[in-house]
Amino acid sequence: MSGGAAVATLGTPERGYLNTLFADLCAIESPSGRERRCAERVAAELGALGIAVSEDEAGPIVGSDSGNLLARIPAAAGRGDAEPRRSSPSVAGAREPHPCLLLCAHLDTVPSAGPIEPVLVDGFWENANEGILGADNKAAVAMLLALARHVLREGAPIDIELLFTVGEEIALAGARAMDVSRLKSQFGYVFDHASPIGGVVVGSPTHFRVEVRFKGAAAHAGIRPEDGRSAILAAARAVASLRLGRIDEQSTVNVGTIQGGSAINVVPEACTLVAEVRSLDDAAAEALVAELVDRVHEAGNAPDCDCDVDVSLRRTFSGYRLAGASRPVQAAERALRACGHEPERIASGGGADANALIAAGLPTVNLANGTERNHEPGERVSVAALEGMLDVALALVHEVATPPAEQAR
């Protein structure tokens, strides 16, 4: 590592703790809105180390049974063990201020189609049943808890803040509800991109949610169909007219759900579709939304449909582009190289808590975590990637502590 900082060496017990804890966390189902049990396990792990955990008021705001969790670990020399201890508040003026670094992961997962039973298969953690594993983002949650355990024993040259958010899978709801003025960190990292370790996300899209409600008129489908106005027909014409999928290298459009009708013998009076627009170019995202809105209105107003159309738009999160020369990106790349990974700057088609934190004013970098097939049956993560992510996080701690003058050597 540049500047003479040494990469922390992890022992077998630490790696065993990381893997066991990861499997335990995955087995705790925590779809968005039901994160409480996972949050309690995280708080218990930190509490056993003597680390105080605070919970914010995000739960009721985002519709979850838990709020975001925040914990702080002050810079300190190691104490040579990892036994529980009592936290001791710092005394103002008792020590020189240290840099403070935020590390973030989210507690929720997408819904699971069945029970989650983590098993090891040829060096990979998988779900023994058909469905997600929950490595998105339990891999990062377990890693941050293992990091806390390590730095309490070995010490850390900087202050560390650990943030565990809720509702990330529902448009970054928890991070958007987070009061970032509570944070002391100058910048932060999330570990939430399902690609090989080494990826540094420097671009992420703006995202719009578009809900369209078609209102026609009901009528008996066999006796008076001409008296009805089919909302499903209007929705079908709308979907058929849209440009869907990958529009260009930066933009995508998708219709995710459609729902309507009441019975097989009734001309459907109502139908609702929900779509999304993403683009790395903010102006392009807005243009695609405008195009979508125009086309659904055209479909609803067609002579054979004649439906009222109500459109609800929401910019769920804003995109960003990070400068390669920025301190958070440079520190990440140095940490990756120190751990034997060649950094690759990438633009992602997905959002992460980094989007919300950046929008709130905190520079944040999303790093690839080595997981595979997130949101899909067959999701998995290798033991090597799980442990490698912890190596990178520890290297980040030391990189952030290294003065810029030493980094330039």
Short account of what is shown:
This protein is of the alpha+beta class and 409 residues long.
Which key terms come to mind for this protein?
409 residues, Alpha-Beta Plaits, single chain, alpha+beta, 2 domains, elongated, 5-stranded antiparallel beta sheet
Number of helices: 11
What is the arithmetic mean of pLDDT? 91
- Computed structural class: alpha+beta
CATH topology of the largest domain: Aminopeptidase
Give the low-pLDDT segments: 1-7, 81-95
| Radius of gyration from CA coordinates | 24 Å
Distance between the ends = 11 Å
β-strand amount: 25-35%
Task: Characterise the protein shown here.
By secondary structure, the protein is of the alpha+beta class. The protein folds into two domains: 2-204 and 319-407, Zn peptidases (Aminopeptidase, 3-Layer(aba) Sandwich); 206-317, Alpha-Beta Plaits. 32% of the residues lie in helices and 26% in strands. The protein is built from eleven helices and 20 strands. A hairpin with a 4-residue loop joins strand 12 (245-246) and strand 13. Helix 8 (327-338) crosses helix 10 (383-401). The chain starts with 11 loop residues before the first helix and ends with a helix.
